[in-house]
Amino acid sequence: MTTIQLSTVIQAPLENVFDAARNIDLHINSAKNTKEKAIAGRTSGLIALYETVTWRGRHFGMYLTHQSKITSLRYPTFFIDEMISGHFKRFKHQHVFKKTSTGTEMIDVLEYITPYGFFGRVFDRLILKKHLTEFLTTRNQFIKMKIEKLA
Fold first, then answer.
1. pLDDT bucket at 151, cuts 50 / 70 / 90
2. Domains of the chain, CATH where assigned
3. Rounded to two decimals, what is the model's pTM?
């Protein structure tokens, strides 16, 4: 299993950051490079507990789909989305939000397992982990920019 953990400090109230992180429209706007679209389930607005979203985006030169479900949510400090269907053996993304003296710390903990045995592990080490880290970092910086403008 591979784990990616990122921390982003955003100078905005906890509730605003929490809602931005589960906003489908913000995600789409942050993922212009991969042409990410929500094509089924919740396709705009704020995703809620037990709702699903199916994403379609261009990664590694091909269009891929990934369906996730919000399996846990504790407003405004925590939610988890987990893959229902897609190209991973397992994919779990924990979103944690902590109030700080200057705003909010947004923490992502992404855990996944690649398919295809040895070849999947090599692909992960050489390409995938870096790609997913950059994808999440871009998303987080986009959220930070948008939310701090409003605060």
1. low
2. 2-150 (3.30.530.20)
3. 0.93
